[in-house]
Design brief:
Blueprint: E1 3-6, H1 11-16, H2 18-27, E2 33-37, H3 39-45, E3 53-56, H4 66-76, E4 83-86, H5 91-99, E5 104-108, E6 119-121, H6 131-137, H7 164-174, E7 181-185, H8 198-210, E8 214-217, H9 224-232, E9 242-244, H10 251-260, E10 263-267, H11 270-277, E11 282-286, E12 301-305, H12 316-327
Parallel strand pairs: 1-2, 1-4, 2-3, 4-5, 5-6, 7-8, 7-10, 8-9, 10-11, 11-12
Length: 331
């Protein structure tokens, strides 16, 4: 019988869910796993080998629409799910599995969900500092999953699939030289305090271009203005090998481009987790957020964490030196 997973809305959080999804598939390889999530993060789920079917959540963030949710849930009922894992903590995320009559509904307590979940867990942050462990714990009985260090199995590093044909097409279309390509991802959600200063990015990009590297700036349409500022501060003579791709790629495309790069530099962002899940040499920059909660889970990732909480305290020299070391991993 199939399992329904109600997935997170954010790219990074969806990647953190891969530990649970991989565990569920390993334990019951014949049971299909269906992922229900918004279109944005569902594009990440499509690159997880363990997911058998994806279902787009047809409601915008913040929309309740009880009547429409009820009708949508009744359509899901025909799939005869025997259990649902509800990963977000919102009330709305628990409504559809309950309305669909799924007998086992597992999740953390969250917002007023006492009667919506049949297996409701109470989260103590100190026992599960990492998000990947919080998701993983839902796969075990509550009397076993008392803390991250007591889980019967440790979640593995998330993995995303890549599309070779898409990669070849993207490399040709954008003129990417994959033997010397460095991906720079200057964006981050939830405010500028998570972003390394644009001046620093400009200096880093200039040094990489001077050293003969090709640099691609990647991100969402929200990052276009920042990318333009970075470019304007790079000497004109060096811009021939600078590719401006912010806002020009879909989620599947940015996954494929990042996987082509020799190394990646990011803030604490969804694309940081993409780089880790495609096993690229990575330098991840943290300021006010903690790398203990959502670290880049990869053996090829290095974290530079500002002890003061101010990401601008991380110097260009520090990032360049770590990046140079990371680039050696591909030699």
């Amino acid at each position: 019988m199939p399992t329904l997973v109600v997935g997170p809305s954010w790219v990074g959080d969806m990647i953190m869910a891969h530990g649970l999804i991989s565990y569920l598939k390993a334990k019951r390889p014949d049971d299909p796993i269906h992922m229900l999530a918004p279109a944005w993060s569902l594009n990440v789920a499509r690159r997880m080998a363990e997911i058998d079917h994806v279902i787009e959540l047809p409601f915008d963030h913040g929309e309740l629409k009880l009547k429409e949710r009820w009708a949508f849930a009744r359509r899901l009922k025909v799939s005869c799910y025997h259990r649902a894992f509800v990963l977000p903590n919102s009330l709305k995320s628990a409504l559809i599995p309950a309305m669909a009559g799924i007998p086992r509904r597992i999740g953390w307590r969250g917002e007023y969900r006492y009667k919506l979940l049949t297996d409701l867990r109470i989260l103590r942050d100190s026992r599960f500092p990492r998000m990947i462990d919080r998701y993983m714990a839902l796969g075990f009985p509550p009397n076993i999953a008392l803390a991250a260090n007591q889980l019967p199995e440790v979640p593995g590093c998330p993995k995303l699939l890549t599309d070779k044909e898409s990669q070849a097409r993207l490399a040709e279309y954008h003129g990417l030289n994959t033997r010397r390509l460095i991906a720079i991802c200057p964006g981050a959600e939830f405010g500028p305090s998570k972003k390394w200063p644009l001046d620093n990015y400009s200096m880093l990009v200039s040094r990489l271009l001077e050293g003969g590297q090709q640099v691609a700036l990647l991100g969402s349409p929200n990052d276009e203005a920042d990318a333009e500022i970075i470019i304007q501060k790079v000497p004109v003579a060096l811009r021939g090998d600078l590719k401006l791709l912010t806002g020009l790629t879909s989620i599947p495309e940015v996954i494929d481009i990042i996987a082509l790069a020799q190394a990646v530099v990011t803030n604490d962002s969804g694309l940081m987790h993409v780089a880790a899940a495609t096993e690229r040499p990575l330098v991840a920059l943290f300021g006010p957020t903690s790398p203990l909660h959502t670290p880049p889970l990869s053996k090829t990732a290095v974290v530079l964490d500002s002890s003061s909480g101010d990401i601008s305290d991380i110097s260009v020299d520090e990032v360049f030196d770590e990046l140079s070391s990371q680039m050696q991993l591909n030699i």
